Structure of Membrane or secreted protein:
Amino acid sequence: MKLTKKRIVLFLLFIFPLICFLILSTGKNNFTKLPIVTENILDASTIDANTTFKENITIVCFIGNNIENSKGGFFNLNEKVYKKFIEYKKFQIIAIYPEGMEDDAKRLKKEIGAFTDMVKWKFISGSNQAISNLYKSFNTNDSLSNMYSSKAFLVDKNGNLRGRIADEDYKDGMLYGYNMQSVSELNAKLKDDVKVLYYEYYAAFKDKNKNKADRKEVGL
């Protein structure tokens, strides 16, 4: 068959995309899973009995003692990430602040909520010791300063800290948390990594149901 310009165009427009779709739809785990950078961190329930990481995809941030000076990053997190996933099931942002900062935390929540449905934002308070213990369990290469971190942390439904192990912008390639002061990092990294984590669970759920259907078919 002679390859004409018309046939090439038709191939590129219709056949090639179909081939790509078939490869992707029939393949198994054709994506990179988001690395676990720290296993089995302390649960949020160690700070607030009514709050947990379990069975949720959680972004954790530490507000600190000087909320007014650090609030810009939380507005970035809200605009660039939270609003993108507000409709997703089992998604939450947990903002942790020290006891005694209740008025400042309420003010920050009110300011963020001026144009946002805050239903999946959770503000919880704890003692300095409880907050420090939770943060230390992340086993990052940074420390809290006045109970504050400029990073947002991604925790999976099993209580593992997720991140990157070969990130060119971080020392030794280890990305434990995402810089809330950097709009580009929230956009290009955190937002994408939350999507990868959701797809990871979707793929696992799909495989589980397929295996059940296969066992049923053979009478197991």
About this structure: The beta strands are 36-38, 57-63, 91-98, 121-126, 148-155, 161-162, 178-179.
